[in-house]
Amino acid sequence: MSTPEQEVEYRQHRFSPPPGATEIFLVRHGESAPAKGSAPFDLVDGQADPDLASEGRDHAERVGRRLADERISALYVTTLRRTPQTAAPLAAKLGLTPEVEPDLREIHLGDWENGLFRRYTHEGHPIVEQLWCEQRWDVIPGAETMESFGGRIKAAIGRLAAANPDRRIAVFTHGGVIGEVFAQASAAKNRFAFLGADNGSISHLVVSGDDWMVRRFNDTSHLHPPFG
After folding, report:
1. Percent of the chain having pLDDT more than 90?
2. For 173-212, how does the pLDDT look when each residue is reduced to its tens digit (9 = 90+)?
3. Dihedral of the CA atoms 113, 114, 116, 118 (nearest 10)?
4. Can you tell me where the transmembrane regions are (predicted)?
5. How many of the other CB atoms lie within 10 Å of CB of 194?
6. Interatomic CA distance for residues 170 and 98, integer angstroms
7. Is 214 in contact with 186 (CB distance < 8 Å)?
8. What gap in Å lies between CA 139 and CA 115, rounded to an integer?
9. Please, where are the H alpha helices in the chain?
């Protein structure tokens, strides 16, 4: 007696990166030290360079545990020390030495560097309201232009992807940078749509040539509490 042929089943599609693509985990550095008028931060090329706060070091440890088993082949940090400090626990677990990608440093805030942006935001400075209305960092006096910022971010992501085909990498960077990456990836009309990634959060981008694919944004499940 013949048995009926098994019917073909068509399962839902499960994402996999295209051949040659690069998976990039963008990690915002852990919380940095508070700004104090009596103790200005050190500067690197005119940008504030605070250490991690104790909370930020805890963020770094949690990130290291979260990403230790994710088959990461390379680590990247910026010229500002809060990023290599955040990367250090993962680097130790993986036995990798982070490479520096200077073009993924934070937006330069001009006259509002060295903690003044935090202060003026807290005080409700009128330029802060203008910044959010116009979605432009360069309303701040002396700040880096949006064109310069966006251009260097796009170029840096392209370089990292070209250097790491079919690999997973972790990039330890800054909130403004992550916001700009995901605004470009999603072609968001609101340039600040992705501003506000939490300290120690992990966002996931897949780059295949000129295509940037958003896989996750601001994952904080390794932090406590996961939803703040």
Report:
1. 89
2. 999 999 999 999 999 999 999 999 999 999 999 999 999 9
3. 100
4. none
5. 22
6. 9
7. yes
8. 17
9. 54-67, 82-94, 116-123, 126-134, 146-163, 175-186
Q: Extract the tokens encoding 130.
A: 């203008």
Residue whose entry in the numeric block shows the structure tokens 């990461």: 72
Q: Assign 213 to helix, strand or coil.
A: strand
**Contact of 204 with 21, CB cutoff 8 Å:** no
- Dump pLDDT digits (tens) for 78-114: 999 999 999 999 999 999 999 999 999 999 999 999 9
Beta-carbon contacts of 5 under 8 Å, excluding residues fewer than 6 positions away, are: none
Residue 85 phi/psi, 5-degree rounding, is -65, -40
β-strand 167-173 against 22-28: which pairing, if any? parallel
- Name the token pair of 70: 């994710």
Confidence of residue 3 (pLDDT cuts 50, 70, 90): low
Q: In angstroms, rounded to a whole number, what is the distance separating the alpha carbons of residues 97 and 93?
A: 11
Q: What is the pTM of this model?
A: 0.94
Write phi, then psi, for 146 (nearest 5 degrees): -60, -35
Distance CA 42, CA 213 (A): 36
> Beta strands 211-219 and 99-100: pairing type?
unpaired
CATH number of this structure's domain 23-219: 3.40.50.1240
* CA–CA dist 2, 204 (Å, integer): 51
Distance CA 212, CA 80 (A): 26
What letter represents residue 185's amino acid? Answer: A
